[in-house]
């Protein structure tokens, strides 16, 4: 069975793609291009941790350090790479530094002058921000932009950051403290996604407050050691990065049990008999644009090995440890009930 998953353990990193870009670890052979792009006063003067002039050998040292940090799961400073006539070209860098004790990561970026005005920054930074919230076990991202850099502030707002206030930050390139605006972003700030996606639920009557009721069936699978299976909602889904009970929306004409049996096959490749699903409790929770009604079943018997089918992380969690895993707000009362019951 799946081994215990530490909710804060960073995942192995695979390059991230967008329509036009690849975000990948820097390589030793990027050093000359990196140096050419960042050793430019118009770029360096906006960056807190970049000296100017930028010594050529610093590019080699910095690239080596970024590779070590990725391997240790502490920071992801990545090359923003585009394509020009079938050739890879370095356009800039985007980076994340984990501040695990505060359950947050700091986002930074720069784009070489030649590629300004093409939306490269928001495309790269937005992609890395979504990846981070879905995969790093953090609650929020933080960032800052110089007071005199409205383009960078606009970029942060465009990808979902909210302004918090003003602060002073040391800038190597300026030789002292400079005024900056500080920003943060949580999952709730991710650009609006349809929530939840079709198909329409079985119980589609508007609730009293005019919200649609969405019926979702979920299960606490319990292994012989009394551990409960949680799955991490993958990037791209609403509430990505939060841990949940396996399950999904009840389709029109389906019973909650049939929906669950279908979802468990689709998501985890296991077969469950209806007689093994014991009704346990339910969640009734008002989200911003729908009302969730979610029966939770208990199940101790299934056939097949639990295997994630959608790339989602899984964790077998002792009941006392459930609270260590950030879950959707609707699940909070269920967790308390489970802990008392198991
Ligand atoms: N499965 C599950 N969903 C939960 C839990 N808590 C909670 O708020 N939800 C919400 C999140 C979603 O808005 C909704 C489930 O919808 P979903 O989109 O994940 O369901 P699905 O698997 O049918 O998704 P899809 O095929 O439409 O992508 O219920 C939970 O513990 N388990």
TrEMBL record:
EC numbers, comma separated: 3.6.1.55
Family per similarity comment: Belongs to the Nudix hydrolase family.
An example Gene Ontology biological process: DNA repair
Catalytic activity: 8-oxo-dGTP + H2O = 8-oxo-dGMP + diphosphate + H(+); 8-oxo-GTP + H2O = 8-oxo-GMP + diphosphate + H(+)
Transmembrane intervals: none
Keyword annotations: DNA damage, DNA repair, DNA replication, Hydrolase, Magnesium, Metal-binding, Mutator protein, Transferase
Signal sequence, start to end: none
Taxonomic lineage from the root: Bacteria, Pseudomonadati, Pseudomonadota, Alphaproteobacteria, Acetobacterales
Nudix hydrolase domain ranges (all copies): 211-340
EC category name: hydrolase
Domain (N-acetyltransferase) ranges: 21-190
Cofactor: Mg(2+)
Pfam families: Acetyltransf_3, NUDIX_4
Gene Ontology molecular function, alphabetical: 8-oxo-7,8-dihydrodeoxyguanosine triphosphate pyrophosphatase activity; 8-oxo-7,8-dihydroguanosine triphosphate pyrophosphatase activity; 8-oxo-dGDP phosphatase activity; 8-oxo-GDP phosphatase activity; acyltransferase activity, transferring groups other than amino-acyl groups; metal ion binding
Protein name: 8-oxo-dGTP diphosphatase
InterPro entries per record: Acyl_CoA_acyltransferase (IPR016181), GNAT_dom (IPR000182), MutT-like (IPR047127), MutY_C (IPR029119), Nudix_hydrolase (IPR020476), NUDIX_hydrolase-like_dom_sf (IPR015797), NUDIX_hydrolase_dom (IPR000086)
